[in-house]
Amino acid sequence: MEKKELMYEGKAKKVYTTEDPAYCVVSYKDDATAFNGEKKGTIVGKGVVNNRMSNFMFRLLEEKGVPTDFVEELNDRDTVLKRVEIVPLEVIVRNKAAGSFSKRFGVPEGTQFKAPTLEYCLKDDALGDPMINDSQIIAIGAATKEELDTIAKYTMKVNEVMVEFFKTCNVDLIDFKIEFGRLPDGTIILADEISPDTCRFWDMDTQEKLDKDRFRRDMGGVEEAYAEMMKRVGLDK
Ligand code: TMP
Question: What is the dihedral of CA 76, 13, 210, 63, to 10 degrees?
Answer without folding.
Answer: -60
